Each structure stands twice: as structure tokens, then as C-alpha cells.
Amino acid sequence: MANLSDALQSFARDGDRFTIVAPEAWAQGRTLYGGMTLALAHEAARRYFDDLPPLRSAQCVFVGPASGRLHFMPGLLRRGRSTTMVAVEAVSDEGPVLRASFVFGADRESEVSVDSPPLPQVLAPEQSGPLFGHSESRAPGFTANFDMRLGGGSQGGSGGEAMMAVWSRFTEAPDCDPTTALLAIADAPPPAAITRFPVMGPLSSVTWHVDMIAPWDDPAGWVLARAEADQAASGMTTQDMKLWSECGDCLAIGRQQIAIFV
After folding, report:
1. More confident residue, 39 or 132
2. SS3 assignment for 64-102
3. CA-based, 20 to 30 A from 144: which of 27, 168, 187, 231?
4. What is the mean pLDDT of residues 5-22?
5. Which residues contact 234 (CB under 8 A, 6 or more apart)?
6. Half-sphere exposure of 161 toward its Cβ, with a 13 Å CA cutoff?
7. CA dihedral for 34, 100, 173, 5, sign (positive or negative)
8. For residue 174, which phi and psi values (nearest 5 degrees)?
9. Is the pLDDT of residue 116 over 60?
């Protein structure tokens, strides 16, 4: 396991970019796992523009493997009275890795109010079984940095409904920006379509859109990620995602497309 804070400490500024050697403890196969890559992109934006308001939305395309020496280059798209838009491009020594855009926005007064989705009916973390079952085998790499428990839906490979509600928390609580931490943990569970996998096999995030709903102030706490596959065919799956804190606050809503190699 590896603490997220330690990885971020090695994320060094070099002129107008930020550089890191992809930490093996956060890898998924030959690449950093998607949540870690987007977390680094957010950290680059946050450090380069030090007066940013809270993150409201992030969109990214995972272009190529995030391995070896990685360079994250932030740039300003637009700065308005309450909203700032930032683009971050990441490249390795082998080629492009990620293109992301972030929308940061200050609070504004509004008479419009719609309640966010409530915490679904699931087992509490202490009542939930381990996501990867009780065998000693588990998914390799970055998953060792998380305690993940299945609170609802189907187990991977079970053939059940294409929905998983997974509680996750860091094995070692990080001391870093809470939004960076949330992006790093939000993508930790596997896609919901894994419930239909006849055998376990590789997968890779292609696109990810996430809208931030409420701030997360407890990076040591549990996060529930509920993902439901809209469809899976021709080696791709698309899913809807929602995240809640243990106390019931909806933290984020997103959509994701994932390549599957089964």
C-alpha cells in the first residue's frame, strides 16, 4: 500500500508543468489507474492557479498509458467573475496520456433548489463483505490502497444485475486537498458491468465526467459509489455513477465509458 500524500509530495513543479514518475503502487496493469491520473491533473490545476474557487465539474479523456515519467501542463481557458475554466494536458515520454477540463466556481445566491439524490438503501460499511470476496486473490496494484466493501448490488462475475454499490476508504488516510482525494477514490471500484464478466480480465477507463455536488471534508471516512451499467457491448460499457459520504451527503454525480477486454 502507499499513502496518497506521499505520492503527491513527489509531484514537482518544473516551470509551467508538474512532473512525477508514475508510482507503481497506484498502477492498474501498465498504467496509473484513472482516478489517480485525474487527481494528479486536478492537483496540477490547483497548484498552478492558487486562487481557484471550489471544483464544480471535471471531464477527461484517457488517451494513453500513464506510465514512466509524466508531465501535467495546466492552462487557463477562461476566467469570469465567479467561474474559472482550466485545461490540463498530461503526456509521458512515450506520448499523450490525458486531456482534462475543470470548471471551478464560487457560490452564488439563487432561489432555485432541488434536493440531491439521497443515500440509497445499502448495508452499512461494517455490515458489508469485502468487494473481492473472502479468498486471498484480489485485483492487483492500486486496489491495495483502499478498503472496499460491497454494500449492495452484485459481486463481480456473479452474473447478477449490472449494479454495484461499493463502500471505499483509503487504507491510510491522506493529508491532502479533499477534492483531490475524492477524485482519487471515486474511481476505485470496478465498473458495474464486471458483474457479468464470465472470467476476470483487463479493463480501462476511456472517458469520465464528474460533477461535484457537495464538499467532502473527511478523507479518512467512507465513500459509497453506486454504479449502474447502462449497456455493455462490442468491448465497451457505459455507466451512471453517484457518490455519497457515510453521513448521507451526495458528493458527486458522473458518467463513465470503459473499455473491457473480456
Report:
1. 39
2. CCCCCEEEEEEEEEEECCCEEEEEEEEEECCEEEEEEEE
3. 231
4. 94
5. none
6. 8
7. positive
8. -85, 155
9. yes
CB 38 within 8 A of CB 183: yes
pTM listed for this prediction:
0.94
CB atoms within 10 A of CB 248: 10
Q: Could you write out the three-class secondary structure of the chain?
A: CCCHHHHHHCCEEECCEEEEECCHHHEECCEECHHHHHHHHHHHHHHHCCCCCCEEEEEEEECCCCCCEEEEEEEEEEECCCEEEEEEEEEECCEEEEEEEEEEECCCCCCCCCCCCCCCCCCCHHHCEECCCCCCCCCCHHHHHEEEEEEEECCCCCCCCCEEEEEEEECCCCCCCHHHHHHHHHCCCCCHHHHHCCCCCCEEEEEEEEEECCCCCCCCCCEEEEEEEEEEECCEEEEEEEEEECCCCEEEEEEEEEEECC
What is the identity of the amino acid at 32?
L
Q: Which three cell numbers stand for residue 42?
A: 486536478
CB-based contact 133:110 (threshold 8 Å): no
Give the Cβ contact number of residue 160 at 10 Å: 13
Is 53 a residue whose pLDDT tops 80? yes
Of 64, 105, 54, 59, the closest CA to residue 83 belongs to 105
Q: Which three cell numbers stand for residue 215?
A: 464538499
Whole-Å CA distances, 159 to 102, 125, 154, 227, 232: 37, 23, 8, 16, 13
The amino acid sitting at 93 is: D
- The span from the CA of 137 to the CA of 115, in Å, is 41
Output the nine-digit C-alpha cell for 216: 467532502
